[in-house]
Specification:
Order of helices and strands: EHEHEHEHEHEHHHEH
Number of domains: 1
Number of strands: 7
Number of helices: 9
Helix content: 40-55%
Strand order of the largest sheet: 3-2-1-4-5-6-7
Radius of gyration: 19 Å
CATH topology: Rossmann fold
Structural class: alpha/beta
């Protein structure tokens, strides 16, 4: 069943692991998909398998004119806009490691991460919603994170931006619900990607102790949830933040240590 037949979608950060999986899944469900990314080559690689149902666009989430142009290009090319998946995030390998603590983070790094991760999502909503209203309604899905619901030892800007995305989602849902605009956020935990496989030795195993499912999720798991929220099957769901993390936040903090203790005792 193609739940998104006749729909048009934008996926930002569409050249990355999660973004490209979402673009592929939405197209499989029948949607025409604009794949938008700051790296044009990445956007093209993700859009190419979609054939005539794909459109690659280069854009900068931190620049209002660029976000507006991305939305307008999509509507011009496909004729309408029904789905927006705000998924772009700051992943610069030089800047991201500087996202540390309240004391140590450079203010320019704080501002840049919020510009991309948070203001970029606001801009996507700002320019997409009028087209959705004109077409009779739409669904916006924002990528948050479990980092927006619990603290960590580093990445204070990233976590703060993701927490703000959860609030932004509720405001958009409240302010535009009667215009038939739904807005939800998905909050991935650790997702099995190539980057995770190459991470610090032992870190993957430490994190895995704290999930409740046998294995980590994959970008395709995130894509399946986004496709559901984009479809009319979720028509009565709006303003919600849905964690997709193998139960990483649902248990007591001593869960992993208690499990290890019980195994040793047994």
């Amino acid at each position: 069943m193609k739940r998104l037949e006749g729909k048009v979608a934008i996926v930002t950060g569409g050249g990355g692991g999660i973004g490209s999986a979402v673009a592929r899944r939405l197209a499989e469900e029948g949607a025409k998909v604009a794949v938008a990314d700051i790296f044009e080559d990445s956007a093209r690689r993700a859009a190419e398998p979609l054939g005539g149902n794909g459109l690659a666009l280069a854009f900068d989430a931190s620049d209002a004119a660029s976000v507006k142009a991305m939305v307008e290009a999509t509507v011009t090319h496909f004729g309408r806009l029904d789905i927006l998946h705000n998924n772009a995030a700051m992943t610069d390998p030089v800047k991201s490691p500087q996202d540390t603590t309240a004391v140590d983070i450079p203010l320019e790094i704080w501002r840049e991460i919020l510009d991309v991760n948070l203001t970029g999502y606001l801009l996507g909503c700002k320019y997409a919603i009028p087209h959705m209203v004109a077409g009779g309604g739409g669904s916006i899905i924002n990528t948050a994170s479990n980092s927006g619901s619990a603290g960590d030892l580093a990445r204070i800007a990233y976590g703060s931006s993701k927490g703000a995305i959860i609030a932004l989602t509720k405001y958009v849902a409240t302010q535009h619900g009667r215009q038939n605009i739904r807005c939800n956020s998905v909050a991935p935990g650790v997702v099995l990607t190539e980057a995770l496989e190459k991470t610090v030795p032992g870190l993957k195993e430490i994190i895995k102790r704290h999930i409740l499912t046998p294995e980590f999720g994959t970008p395709d798991d995130i894509a399946a949830l986004v496709a559901f929220l984009a479809s009319d099957e979720s028509r009565y769901i709006t303003g919600e933040n849905i964690s997709i993390s193998g139960g990483g936040l649902v248990h007591q903090p001593h869960y992993a240590d208690l499990m290890a203790f019980m195994e040793q005792a047994g």
